[in-house]
Amino acid sequence: MSKKIWVIVESKEGKAHPVSWELLGKARELAGPEDELGAVVVGYKIDSVAQEALEYGATRVYVLDAPVFAYYRNLPFREAIVQLAKKYTPDIILLGATTLGRDLGSAVATSLETGLTADATELALDEKGHLLATRPAFGGNIMATISWPEHKPQMSTVRPRVFPLPQKVATPQGEVIQENIELKEEDIPVKRLEFIPKEKGVNLEYAEVIVAGGKGIAEKKDFELLFELAKLLGGEVGASRAAVDAGFIGYEHQIGQTGKTVRPKVYLGFGISGAVQHRVGMQESDYIIAVNQDPLAQIFSIADLGLVGDLYQILPSLLKRIKELKES
Ligand SMILES: Cc1cc2nc3c(=O)[nH]c(=O)nc-3n(C[C@H](O)[C@H](O)[C@H](O)COP(=O)(O)OP(=O)(O)OC[C@H]3O[C@@H](n4cnc5c(N)ncnc54)[C@H](O)[C@@H]3O)c2cc1C
């Protein structure tokens, strides 16, 4: 029997969050030729996002385009998706595990009285086509695969970057369905009075270059060297859990099973042993450079370039050389 797999496309001011396309790519992989690959696009003036959804392979794009969806609020977005889901009965609904996706996904699941696996890091289907969502549980001590075949839709939020950005399809074949729901601005108690953009935070998941430090860094102040290198290379600073636990840097920089998943073009690790819990968060990086004084460090097993040596000699030399090259 054919299935309907939906992805809720997250967008802001007419620009889609890449996690939505990562999920469409994964859904394409999971779907059979008869299955519907649905993209739900809710917003205001979002034609280009709907078009992009087709280009990423959606076979049906459900569009709700109205001023009440101009910015994210739980109530109108939840209502929109709940009403669509009741009308079209999808089997599976996927969202990015972003701030918006977590807020919206849990509200939709509650309204539809179904289950949701939060923060999944792997998705599969069983032989009957039921969703199997895997995520770290009990502080990352086990990987739990969760399934609840008796309720539909089966829902999951999925961490950004665990799946690659797919190629666009050569000739988009899908159809766009314009939908409407009866919802007036007066019915929505939450209003946006002012918009204050937040200061630039850490964008680890989508950084092209990551300079990461581990417990091989002796002191908190030495992380400044990593920030300097990241700035020179136009990248972000990441860290192992040991460095975060030592108080050298904030949790938002942590890479790994209980941190963030990253896929930069270049990952440079300084004084990181390469424990499996760290590797699962960065092993999909395109090019891995590791600096460690222990030739047997596990990080070298996945490194494209390994430098055995003292990071306190290598890092300053590297900084000096890059500065010289930039100045010349
Ligand atoms: C449930 C669970 C979840 C976890 N989740 C995560 C996670 O999300 N992310 C994560 O990173 N870890 C996680 N961990 C921890 C993980 O198991 C490791 O303990 C951690 O990754 C080790 O960090 P590290 O490599 O910085 O430190 P260490 O293992 O202490 O390694 C330090 C490395 O630095 C090298 N070194 C020391 N001095 C120098 C120097 N001067 N020059 C060059 N090299 C030097 C050493 O040879 C060594 O290899 C988790 C663990 C558990 C049990």
Enumerate the spans where pLDDT stays under 50 for 5 or more consecutive residues: none
The number of helical segments is 8
Bound molecules: flavin-adenine dinucleotide
Secondary-structure-based class equals alpha/beta
Task: Give me the CATH architecture of the largest domain, please.
Answer: 3-Layer(aba) Sandwich
Q: Kindly state the percentage of residues in helix.
A: 25-40%
Q: Looking at CATH, which topology of the largest domain would you report?
A: Rossmann fold
Mean pLDDT: 96
Order of helices and strands: EEEHEHEHEHEEEEEEEHEHEHEEH
**What is the topology, as strand order, of the major beta sheet?**
7-11-6-1-4-5-12
Q: Superfamily at the CATH H level of the largest domain?
A: HUPs
Estimate the global geometry from the Cα principal axes.
elongated
The level-1 CATH class of the largest domain: Alpha Beta
β-sheet strand percentage:
25-35%
Rg for CA atoms: 22 Å
How many structural domains can be distinguished in the coordinates? 2
Extended strand count:
17
Largest sheet: 7 strands, parallel
Question: What distance separates the N and C termini?
Answer: 64 Å
